[in-house]
Task: structure prediction
Amino acid sequence: MVKWTEEERRIIRGVWEKVDIDEIGEELWARALIVYPWIDRYFGSFGDIFTTTAILKNPKLAALGKVVLSALDTAVKNMDNFKALYAPLSRQHYEKIKVDPDNFRLLAECITITIACKLRAELNPQVQATWQKFLSAVVEAMNSQYK
Amino acid sequence: MTMSLSAKDKATVKAFWAKISSSGEAIGADALSRMLVVYPQTKTYFSHWKDMSPGSAPVKKHGATVMGGVAEAVAKIDDLTSGLLSLSELHAFTLRVDPANFKILSHNILVVLAIMFPTDFTPEVHVAMDKFLAAVARALSEKYR
Result:
């Protein structure tokens, strides 16, 4: 498991405090599907996700955004052992949903960019570096059961 | 994966660029600063600089140079391969930057665009710019091997 300094913990909490899970959750998958449209392969049961307009108002995508950010909240609150907590999630994504793990990296980039729109200059290079370290650890945790 | 720019992509890029080009130097400086801090392996290309810290003189100067290249790419968006030929030769034979780094810098440019232009950087503009920067990276990689 990754090691965190006090400063890094403070930075991660500071970023996360400013994330409104409902607000960011709604935008997250819309951005991901518009920017990386091939990920719609995983969304067969989500109804209409085939135009920008439909994507932006799809309630299932908005709901899933909140699910993902709630999982991220778990990681923020358990920074020293979320790899273990994420094992079932990783297994689920591998065995049941069968998600190519490169998508975890793509979604992480969308999360950063969505947060950048919100936090703006507060996401300075040092904060971005710490946030990137955190998301990389989350991505690694999501990869852990792919074997 | 080769994904070409549609007419809509090109129009979106040109319209967005028109809005942001006067901030080109600032965008370049910030993107480069972030890249060096967030992806420290990229510092290996700049050991000849006295100062690699965010906002330092060499970083600002080089950020402006890079965005000058992006501006050139926007102007030559209809044929990036021939338009960026000499830049490709520079990167392939002189600089020899591993092409994986183009993706890293592109990501940081997008982060800066999101920060500086949050309302204009809609998902549609985001995808057009991401595709454009990927196309520029491909054109720069042309001469590598």
Q: What stands out?
A: Chain A has one domain: 6-143. DSSP finds eight helices and no strands in chain A. Helices of chain A lie at 6-17, 21-35, 52-56, 59-77, 82-85, 87-96, 102-119, 125-143. The mean pLDDT of chain A is 95.
